[in-house]
């Protein structure tokens, strides 16, 4: 019977030893891509610290603060610790397992009692003949690498969120100040109109029309103040210090120069954290598929025990009482209801799915980068056009105001000129903020580096 089992195990070994153990690679599955971006841009070296390119020291301090205090980022650090611990546990399966034990017993008889002492030491080790345990350990390492990339992605995303929230807050302040100036200007105009009405120069409809316009401006001011407060709270959440209501934001939006230093499309494959994480998970899936295939092969295990015992404690240290044995066993799966083969098929399918996920991640990364790069030039044109629109509207308002005071323009022409001027200035602030946030999107899309308190510690 034993000879038949050994023959069956050997037959299983020969039949399954040719199973494929190739780990899947994502580089061969990526479609061919251009050597440069489809839009004209300086693809020179990327900045060491993209946050510093905005020339806003306050922004750098906020990013560093969030990097050290944001709760979501702390959770990402904890997930990395868990993944690294899992990798160590997976690697432990390749090493021998040693345990020790002891026992004490007493037997009572009519003639008296006796004690019995025993101690033993056992060790077991599965010899990694086919590399199955090595595959499991490598999969654990790849999972830890994916978690590290996830952490890097979370830090980059957090820096981008802080920058965007900061720019939104700056715009909100500028919009609030614009609304305040509009209310003050309308109050002065209304005072002038009321004096003219008292002198019989203006009509009562002019007074009522301007009072209505002033009320609308006050309503807009309340709306702007609400938006500014909400923007401040959103930034405080990212900083992990809500509710402090102590963020100084008496700053202007950044004046951006031409876009430079975005690298080339190939740089994304080695820079973007989400691509690196997808690649690490692809490697892990390949190793797990290989492990599942090798689980069909025979396993060689070694087990050793040694122990001593006697009626006295001193007997535990007596070499003459030692009893040792060493057992080697070769086991091969024969029938498990198809569970091992099903796990092999599942692991291979999961690896193929992860391969497609990796390719899709790369394609989305390229699209996001090109979208943001393409938008930068258009947003620069928009800012320039809106600047001119504001300057012309401001000059027109000043002219109509003088004409109204001289009786050469109507109240409706004055209100229209003020409205156009306010709208042009408001749109200019929005355009500047949108270009700044799009610049952040560019650095996020290309996996740009930034400096922070945690980065300096590492």
Summarize the structure.
By secondary structure, the protein is α+β, with helices and mostly antiparallel strands. 62% of the residues lie in helices and 11% in strands.
Keywords, please?
458 residues, alpha+beta, 4 strands, disordered N terminus, disordered C terminus
Explain how this protein is built:
With 458 residues, the chain is an alpha+beta fold. The protein has one domain (2-17, 34-106, 113-457): Outer membrane efflux proteins (OEP). It is 62% helix and 11% strand. The chain contains ten helices and four strands, in the order H-H-H-E-E-H-H-H-H-E-E-H-H-H. It has helices spanning 2-16, 57-69, 71-92, 132-198, 204-239, 268-271, 273-294, 339-405, 411-445, 453-457, and strands at residues 97-109, 112-127, 299-310, 323-331. A four-stranded antiparallel β-sheet has the order 1-2-3-4, with no helix packed on it. Helix 2 (57-69) crosses helix 4 (132-198), helix 4 runs antiparallel to helix 7 (273-294) and helix 8 runs antiparallel to helix 9. The longest helix is centred in the middle third of the chain and has 67 residues, at 132-198. The chain is elongated, with a radius of gyration of 37 Å. Residues 1-22 and 453-458 have low confidence and may be disordered.
Q: H/E order of the elements?
A: HHHEEHHHHEEHHH
Q: Count the E strands.
A: 4
Structural class: alpha+beta
By CATH, the topology is Outer membrane efflux proteins (OEP)
Mean pLDDT: 82
Distance between the termini: 62 Å
Topology record:
Elements: H1 2-16, H2 57-69, H3 71-92, E1 97-109, E2 112-127, H4 132-198, H5 204-239, H6 268-271, H7 273-294, E3 299-310, E4 323-331, H8 339-405, H9 411-445, H10 453-457
Antiparallel strand pairs: 1-2, 2-3, 3-4
Helix pairs in contact: 2-4, 3-4, 4-5, 4-7, 4-9, 7-8, 8-9
């Amino acid at each position: 019977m034993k000879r038949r089992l050994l023959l069956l195990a050997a037959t299983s070994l020969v039949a399954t030893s040719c199973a494929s153990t190739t780990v899947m690679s994502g580089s061969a599955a990526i479609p061919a891509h251009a050597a440069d971006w489809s839009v004209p841009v300086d693809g020179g070296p990327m900045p060491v610290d993209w946050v510093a390119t905005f020339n806003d020291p306050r922004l750098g301090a906020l990013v560093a603060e969030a990097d050290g205090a944001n709760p979501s980022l702390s959770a990402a650090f904890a997930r990395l610790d868990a993944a690294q611990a899992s990798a160590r546990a997976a690697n432990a399966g390749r090493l021998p397992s040693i345990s020790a034990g002891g026992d004490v017993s007493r037997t009572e008889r009519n003639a008296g009692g006796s004690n019995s002492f025993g101690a033993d030491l056992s060790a077991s080790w599965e010899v990694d003949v086919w590399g199955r345990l090595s595959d499991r350990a490598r999969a654990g390492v790849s999972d830890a690498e994916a978690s590290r990339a996830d952490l890097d992605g979370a830090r980059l995303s957090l820096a981008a969120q802080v920058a965007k929230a900061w720019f939104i807050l700056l715009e909100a302040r500028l919009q609030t100040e614009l609304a305040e100036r509009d209310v003050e200007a309308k109050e002065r105009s209304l005072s002038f109109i009321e004096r003219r009405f008292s002198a019989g120069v203006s009509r009562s409809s002019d007074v009522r029309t301007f009072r209505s316009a002033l009320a609308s401006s006050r309503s807009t001011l309340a709306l702007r103040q609400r938006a500014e407060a909400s923007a401040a709270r959103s930034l405080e959440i990212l900083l992990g210090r809500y509710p402090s209501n102590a963020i100084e934001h008496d700053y202007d939006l950044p004046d951006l120069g031409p876009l430079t230093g975005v690298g080339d499309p190939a740089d994304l494959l080695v820079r973007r954290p989400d691509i690196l994480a997808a690649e690490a998970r692809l490697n892990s899936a390949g190793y797990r598929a290989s492990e599942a295939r090798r689980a069909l092969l025979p396993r060689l295990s070694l087990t050793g025990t040694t122990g001593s015992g006697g009626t006295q404690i001193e007997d535990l240290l007596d070499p003459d009482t030692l009893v040792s044995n060493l057992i080697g066993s070769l086991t091969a799966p024969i029938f498990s209801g198809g569970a091992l083969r099903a796990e092999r098929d599942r692991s291979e399918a999961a690896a193929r799915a992860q391969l497609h996920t990796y390719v899709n991640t790369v394609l989305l990364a390229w699209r996001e980068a090109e979208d943001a790069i393409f938008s930068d030039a258009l947003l620069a044109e928009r800012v320039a056009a809106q600047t001119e629109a504001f300057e012309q509207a401001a000059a027109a308002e000043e002219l109509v105001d003088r004409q109204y005071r001289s009786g050469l323009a109507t109240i409706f022409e004055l209100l229209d000129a003020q409205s156009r001027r306010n709208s042009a200035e408001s749109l200019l602030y929005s355009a500047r903020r949108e270009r700044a946030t799009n610049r952040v999107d560019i650095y996020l899309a290309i996996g740009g580096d930034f400096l922070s308190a945690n980065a300096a510690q590492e």
